[in-house]
Amino acid sequence: MQFIDRTRVIVKAGDGGHGKSAFRREKFVPKGGPSGGDGGRGGDVIFVVDQNMNTLLDFRFHRKFTAKNGENGDIKNQYGANAPACYVKVPPGTIVKDEATGKVLADLTEIGQEAVVCKGGRGGRGNAKFANSANRTPTFAEFGEPGEAKNLILELKLLADVGLVGYPSVGKSSLVASCSAARPEIAEYHFTTITPVLGVVKTDYEKSFVMADIPGLIEGAADGVGLGHDFLRHVERTKLILHIVDASGLEGRDPIDDYYKINAELKKYSEKIARRTQVLVANKIDLPEAQENLPRLQKLAEENGMKFFAISAATREGVQELIDYTGEWLDNYVEEPETEDEVVVYDENEEDPDKITISRNISGELVVSGTNIEKLVKMTNFLNDEAVRRFQYIWRIKNLDEKLREKGAKEGDTIHIGEMEFEFRD
Predict the structure, then answer these.
(1) Which residues are annotated as a binding site?
(2) Which amino acids does the record list as binding GTP (predicted)?
């Protein structure tokens, strides 16, 4: 199965249903009055974690998700039905980012966890809602509020307890294959493994942990060299790092130099990863060339305060001791508090919705922008005279004429608000 861990999707919440403009006309009911009902709320777009997914492959073929619109209001004060939410299944470990701002909208790690990434628009109010002592028979109703629309970036960070890092061909895949049911491709050339591989390792009858082979780490990985730039993010979720080195040095590399180069890349990518607990694992000790490097590697581990294991993934020598230690370490592991400022749960817009900004477009025409004023334009029925008068009243309350004059608006100038154009009259 192809492994996809980053993709772009388009989501659109449902629009609110339109309010109804109607009057009650029944026999024996004098002066029935306005009776138009409100529209229903548009459906939200909600991401939910599904335990049966482990990759973002599905989003390669299905990139657009749209919730249904709310139903329109009806006569006799009947409200339109609210639209159901559009649920989008994602694998555990998915981070949802707004493509426009780069802001993290949700960090989805727990099975069943949900996050609203796009809110549906509220239903427009029917004319019954606008009746008051000054206007007992309003003839206008609101259009439904448009639902939110966003372009999102989905990033998958694998949820593994233990991550294996090291140069290509040091035996990471062999170790995963020797202690789990995973069967990654194993060969003598570099970059045999081009996607992360997960394996479940049993420590005893009831306990187990997940081990991830993180491929492609070489010098320059944090800058995009090799495959490391694509897969370094998967190390962030791990609790313990097993740093694998080739003790034999058969490829002409010094295992101690390898250790320092890989750690430099981890630190360059993330200080948080660089502080993660590491265990130094010298692999391929079944080869005669490995014996002269073992004392140097043992000394390196002692100098850096690391636990050291000498193993052979091919013959399984020392592998069980490594598994036992890893399982015991994970049993005593205490979760660190989340300190990343960027990881936040979806919240309301931080900007003041009443704030109005006036600027000029590329043609030199004035553009009025602001959350509430743009919603007002979209929800106003400009074919109804009463609705237009209400819009003009709100326009005057917001003192928009004076603000436009300050920006140089003159008689006959075109004013843009959202998709609507207005002619300025002084």
Answers:
(1) 166-173, 191-195, 213-216, 283-286, 312-314
(2) 166-173, 191-195, 213-216, 283-286, 312-314
